[in-house]
Each structure stands twice: as C-alpha cells, then as structure tokens.
From TrEMBL:
SUPFAM superfamilies: lambda repressor-like DNA-binding domains (SSF47413). GO terms for molecular function: DNA binding. It comes from Vagococcus elongatus. This is HTH cro/C1-type domain-containing protein. Residues 10-63 form the HTH cro/C1-type domain. SMART domains: HTH_XRE.
Length: 283
C-alpha cells in the first residue's frame, strides 16, 4: 500500500473493531484530524501514527502495507480451514479454530465471513441443529449482506441456503422458504460468473426444501439450474444428489423415462466418484 492509501487501511481496521472515530481519536488527535487521515488527505506524524496503530492492535508496517505477513498468514489459515471443511475433517478443523487464534480485527469483512462460516460448520459436525450454529451462520451473513441488495456473492448464496435449511428444521416455514427463494434468486442472477463449488450443495438444499413443501415448479427450476451450472463448470460435488432430486421431481410428474434416466446418471456419477477416490488413495 502506498502513502496515499494507508488511511483507507486504518479506516477498515477501525470499522472491523467497531470503534467510532471519536473512540479511536481520544487522547491521540482530534476527530477531524483522524477523519482527514482516514480520507488520505494528510500524513500523520510518527507519534500519532504509532498511537493509532497501538489502539488498533496493528503494527505501523501493517497499516502501511495491505500485503503484510500478517495478511498472508490470515489467508493461509483460512485456506487451511476451507480444505478441512471440504474434506470433512471436522475434528481437525475444530482443533485448528481452538488452537490458532487470529484476531478478527485484522480480517476484511469477507475473511471474517469465512471465519464464522467454517466455525459454524465445525460446530454443526457435532450438533447440526444447535442454536449456536444458527447464530454463527447469521453472524457470517451479516458481515456483508443486506436483504435489499440486488446482487449477491457466492458465500452469501451458500449462507442463505444453510440458514433456510435450519429455519425450516426449527419450524419457521415462512422464514425458511424466504431464505431458500432468495438463495435461488441470487444464484440465477449472473450465474455464469460464479465459481464456488459449494454452490451445488446449496442448490441441493434449496431443491430439497421445495420438494418437501411440494413446490415442485420451484424445485425443478433450482435443480435444472444447479445441474447446468455444475456440468458447465465440471463440478461433480453433489451433482449425483441433484440428479436424485431430478428423479424425484420427474416421478411426481409421472415422467417415468426421465426418472430412469436420472437413476442411470446417478450410477455413472457414483462410479466416477469411487474411481477418483481410489486414484487419490493410490497417490
């Protein structure tokens, strides 16, 4: 980060720590001065910069450089959490969360969102429907999401699906289906630019919810879009489950040939998955 953007970095950390300008500036400088610093209008002297960084619990180097070693450490840590989650190693994930603490003040909103999400996944592996899981998922969503927004990130779509599933389990049918409809609506918007493979699982949960509540047209739309996206992006993750849902929908519509076609595709996908697992084991 150059001399003209360090103020933006200070402002980001302050907001993540939920400090007001008045709280950060107290006994260091005037609030007006801090505002000018955050807007990159003035360069603070060394004493003011040191005191601001001390209150934000970051080094001056980190304030001046968004690509600091600490930032890289945070990214590496989150990538390890992602790997443990996607490979279902939840005991190790829980251990990692409990042993290696990274102060949330150094996270961007998106990093904090991932942190809460993986923490929720670790807890869910032991008690999938606990209120603690719901709370963590909601905290994760709240990091970036606004119900009035027109677009959505991949993670927000995944979180809406997870929260919808939990709301439905807890008997909150109206709220649960609203989350599911939002998740599908956002997925449909600009789906060509989406990249997270966990979207397939999210759409599987959406489709399952609609089938369980006999909303077959919505279920058919969700499953068709999920299958098309997975095939276009060469994603096998949860694809067999989407074809299973497609078979169930076809059966409800008395479309026996389509049901049989889905069953054959599920068998093929299962064989491919087993083959890949065997190859991975050999490696």
């Amino acid at each position: 980060m150059n001399d003209h953007t360090y103020g933006t970095n200070l402002k980001k950390v302050r907001k993540e720590m939920k400090l007001s300008q008045k709280q950060l500036a107290e006994d260091i400088c005037s609030q007006a001065m801090l505002s000018r610093i955050e807007n990159n209008e003035v360069i603070p002297n060394a004493l003011i910069m040191t005191e601001i960084c001390k209150r934000l619990n970051i080094s001056v180097e980190e304030a001046m450089n968004e690509h600091s070693p600490h930032s890289q450490k945070s990214r590496d840590w989150l990538q390890l959490m992602q790997y443990l989650h996607q490979t279902h190693q939840y005991t190790q994930l829980s251990l990692l969360i409990s042993q290696q603490y990274v102060p949330p003040a150094h996270f961007s909103k998106e990093e904090l969102q991932l942190y809460y999400y993986y923490k929720a996944c670790a807890l869910a592996s032991f008690d999938s429907h606990s209120k603690g899981v719901t709370k963590l998922l909601q905290e994760s969503l709240d990091c970036t999401f606004d119900f009035e927004q027109t677009g959505s990130s991949d993670m927000e779509i995944i979180l809406l699906s997870e929260l919808g599933r939990l709301r439905l389990f807890q008997g909150e049918t109206e709220a649960g289906l609203l989350f599911m409809k939002k998740s599908l609506s956002y997925f449909s918007y600009n789906s060509a630019k989406r990249t997270n493979i966990e979207l397939v699982r999210a759409i599987y949960h959406v489709g399952t919810a609609f089938i369980n509540h006999q909303l077959y047209d919505l279920a058919d739309r969700a499953v068709a879009q999920g299958i098309a996206w997975a095939q276009k992006n060469h994603v096998l993750y949860y694809l067999d489950q989407l074809f299973l849902l497609k078979g169930i929908i076809s059966q409800e519509h008395h479309q026996i040939p389509k049901t049989l076609e889905s069953i054959k595709l599920i068998d093929t996908l299962t064989s491919v998955a087993v083959r890949e697992q065997n190859l991975a084991a050999e490696i």
